[in-house]
Amino acid sequence: MSAFPADAQAPALRQSEIAAITAPAQAFPQDPGSDYFLANYTQYEAYLKQLASQSNRMKLSSFGVSAEGRTQWMAIVSSPENLANMERYQDIAHRMAKAEGVTEQEAAQLAAEGKAIVWIDAGLHSTETVTTQSQIQILYRLLTMNDPETLRTLDDVIIIFGHVNPDGTELVANWYMRNQNPEDREFRYIPRLYQKYTGHDNNRDSYISNMPETENVNRVHFREWFPQIIFNQHQTGPRGMVVFIPPFRDPFNYNYDPLVMTSTTEVGMIMHSRLISEGKAGSGMTSAAPYSTWHNGMYRSTPYFHNSVGILTEIIGGPTPEAIPLLPDTQIARGEEPMPISPRMWHLRDSLEYQWSMNRAVIDYASRNRERLLMGIYRMGANSIQRGNQDSWTITPQDIDALKEAGAGTVAPDAEGTAEYMRSPGQVSSELYDTVLRDPAKRDARGYILNPDEQRDLPTTVAFLNALIKSGVDVEQATAAFTVGGKRYPAGSYVVKAAQAYRPHVMDMFEPQDHPHDLAYPGGPPKLPYDVAGYTLAYQMGVSFDRIVEGFEGPFQDVADELPSPRGTITGSGRAGWLVGHETNNSFILTNRLLKAGAPVFWTKGDTRVAGVEFEPGAIWVPASPEAAAIMSAGVVELGVDAQAVASAPRVETLALKPVRIGLVDRYGGVMSSGWTRWMLEQYEFPFEVVYPQALDGGNLNSKFDVLVFTDGTTPALRGGPFRSGRGGEQPAPEAIPAEYRAWLGEVTEQKTLPQIDAFVRGGGTILTIGGANRLASLLNAPVEPALFREVNGQQTVLRNEDFFIPGSILRARIDNSQPLAYGMPDEADVFFSNGQTFRLNGPAAHSIAWFDTATALRSGWGHGQEQLKDTVAIADIDIGEGKLFVYGAEVIQRAQPHGTFKLFFNGLIYGPASNENK
User: How many Cα atoms sit within 13 Å of 484 on the Cβ side?
Assistant: First the structure.
């Protein structure tokens, strides 16, 4: 810990300077933090601009635009001298974080000169209202206080206060304040998701950066400012307590540097100690809440894979006062809750004061440990570079299982002669360390090479690489052909080396996750991970890569910024039309543009060979027309889709496509899976309309829609049965909400909705169901039955977790790509599966599209009881009357991440209506 001279502090403000800074109570209709009031984003934004014009301790900077077009602001707070030299300190933070070419001596010099950078955000989950309201007051205090701690910390630290969800803050605050009577104010019944597409899932997007807000934050964190501490503030706290603060519970992700977690624990304990020293009771840690550090997709967890401390807090409170309940088990002091709190009424102002103490604790820690933080992020980056440049091994639970198996039934030689009672249980020979845990065949990769000629979908591969770049990963590209490991690679090949500061993130995106067997007790049920267990992005996106375990060099140059989409080409001189392969997801954008323009479009039903080019079943045949010519010439270049101009129509049977009318089912309040799907349909230019239960109940659906899409959580939330429960939940009375939202109320029910859905599909409509919505297959009497269930009192119900538990993981499935629903797919694919249901087929009307043919289908994650998947169907194509039902037990579009299986969904949107039209 560095020592600081007494005069190393920002200059104190004169009283006239303090008076010139507008207090929150003067700037808002009501003082933020008071009962029954929420400031919206418009008011917050105006106040930030006002503060920036009044204080020399703050600079206001835009860092992007939200999904609805609002500016995202960050208030950069520090001493006037630091703000004047901000670019220098930003450069030091960059050099220390990336560590490339910086010696230990140079790092020490930079650490002595540099300033700690701390990011503190607000507003991510907009119904967690404490964060934005408290940030207003915290900013004012830091800009006006003259106490020694404030002055010292402003000199040592640059604090970035960022707002990460402007749209949601505006929505929630306006909804809450719409009622004149304070006691009628609520945000429980907001009508839609508080992020345009994702709602709460805006905190599951960090490694792929689909949403603009995520991309903007990642740019600040990992490409521009490189904060050593990222403080992500949430709600709500554990019942009977006030706030959760780290340390976190296990499991620990083995890809990141251990220093990042010991530092995170250190900061968390400082926060607990500050609250307790101020008499603020009710903080809990570790198993007081379910939060862990395994998953990479969250705002505070992605930093671990970038060598930054990530702090999550979860606090109670809100504008409407609430009571802290009395829970007996929380009233005894223990390691995880050192200072219990008594039951009492709780106000937003109480939460604000806790937030102030926690913010102060983090900032003070950064001040007192300024050089340590800078040296810590440097050393973790340097460690990553060193590990990437030499033979390294990452020990996973499977390796430990192999070690135990190798040592089973033997007495370790180093334990011989030791009294039995002194031997460590489970001790094995130390010689096994080198033979099992240092097996040369299990070395970590030195890097990954992506050959563009081997990609089935090159635009998607570029999207994968851009997700890495958006997260600060260094990507290179070959300027000439080269050879590695005896294999020749062309110019333009992409290279991601492990020898870089963000190696933990690289490994986590390319390598499979091996989640520990985390049981409640030996032999007991599995503990639910905090979010998913397996998420390897290269697998989800269907990227082909070579894993290189030896050191390698080549004619590589750094990719300076995001890669442009590859340009497609039209080859051949035929004038009859064009053939386009079905392998690229972007081919659906091209198809939708053609259909919208009224151009004829077909899919081939068999293999086709033209001018030496092989086309798999599903090739897109576009007869020549003026409308098609303009779209094709522009589209292939923009979308990276290659086309072959041919002299005659294909000599195989074709399926004529038609423009489709898609109804995407949602419910009042918004279903996140439906929101993600809405975003995807927009990206790929599918025409659609959001449809609510009342509209479904109204019937006559075939006159309005060709396709209805039911994503996970959109069907009844019934307990029992073999399907996962839907979302459900209480809804407001119609008279309690504005008239414009009343048509959104209602639920999909067996009594009113099912008969209309049944008539729709039997009358020639197409239905797609995903996840829990697959229950509709049973309700529609489709010729399939659940494969994963147990019987209780003669009734089917879900399997116990002790028997079957696959909590969000990647599995390998067989694919019948001769079927239209799987056109463009390989014959095997990685699919995302999350404790879902698979099927057995009954009769010729049901067709297997994807299935599991092995007892070991797990590729990444956790697969307890996975053998029960063998010979069950994951995706089925079912004829019902004149229509089609496609059931997806595998979640082929989950969170818009598994690009490698998007085609299985997109094909259903187009193929169902086309097949019904051609009957």
Answer: 26
